[in-house]
Automatic annotation (TrEMBL):
Annotated signal sequence range: none
Stored SUPFAM superfamilies: TPR-like
InterPro entries linked to this entry: TPR-like_helical_dom_sf (IPR011990), UCP030959_TPR_rpt-cont (IPR014562)
Name of one Pfam family that matches: TPR_19
Protein name stated in the entry: Flp pilus assembly protein TadD, contains TPR repeats
Length: 251
């Protein structure tokens, strides 16, 4: 019996320490609910998302923490990024705020932040060019996005990422440049993590009357959904369903 009581006591102590950290560091109070309701898992999630990145300060740990925090509460990630900009309006902090705004669907704000940050030595920064291009695509301004993506491509390898290929495909498709869009989507489908690139590629192939090719991509997506880790499966299924709704049924 004693080991069981010890486990309960340790779980409670960890949760209390995590709650104290939440209050003392001024974190959002939804963390308190998460920690107290889901003991000890809530405290573990909080430690991974907040405490460990603070302790170790490494770029990879900080990015992982921000990604997990943003996934749990996008609005909270936006508020945190806004406070960081108020404290220090550096280009890095403004990029984080623009990313958080984009994730909330605040595309006009994201576009403005990316545009205002892309000055001086940052005029050709790949993250700023791609971020602004993505926001412009969502704002139905594909020609402006295409001009930025062409500048990004001219930077060389650092501007020719799978994410850039996906954005290029979307801009070209919106401008009815379907040959160029297909080439870009094909690259995104081959190299972009997740299923969005494949979904948009399959949809375009179907729209161009290439049903067998589209069905082959969709079949590959179905196989990949089954092997997707559970925490990413919902998003994977959403993109699979997006493609399936656009691939025509065989006659």
């Amino acid at each position: 019996m004693f080991p069981a009581y010890s486990s309960i006591g340790l779980s409670l102590i960890i949760s209390i320490v995590a709650c104290v950290h939440v209050v003392r560091t001024g974190r959002e109070y939804y963390w308190l609910l998460l920690i107290l309701i889901f003991q000890p898992l809530g405290a573990i999630i909080y430690s991974v998302a907040i405490v460990l990145p603070e302790l170790f300060g490494g770029g990879r740990a900080q990015r992982a923490g921000r990604a997990l925090s943003a996934q749990l509460d996008p609005a909270g990630a936006y508020r945190q990024a806004a406070r960081a900009v108020d404290d220090n309006p550096s280009v890095y902090n403004r990029i984080q705020l623009a990313t958080a705004a984009f994730d909330l669907g605040r595309y006009e704000e994201a576009e403005r932040l990316y545009r205002e940050s892309a000055e001086g030595i940052y005029a050709d920064d790949p993250a700023l060019l791609l971020g602004r291009a993505r926001a412009l695509i969502e704002l139905k301004r594909p020609q402006e996005a295409l001009e930025l993506l062409q500048r990004l491509h001219d930077l060389g390898e650092e501007g020719r990422t799978p994410q850039a290929a996906l954005a290029l495909g979307r801009a070209q498709e919106a401008l009815s440049n379907l040959d160029e869009a297909e080439l870009a989507y094909e690259q995104a489908a081959l190299h972009l993590p997740g299923l969005e690139g494949m979904a948009r590629y399959a949809a375009l192939l179907s729209a161009r009357g290439r049903e067998k090719d589209a069905e082959a991509v969709l079949a590959d997506m179905n196989r990949r959904v089954k092997g997707t880790p559970s925490r990413f499966r919902r998003e994977a299924r959403a993109w699979r369903d997006f493609a399936a709704s656009r691939v025509r049924e065989p006659a």
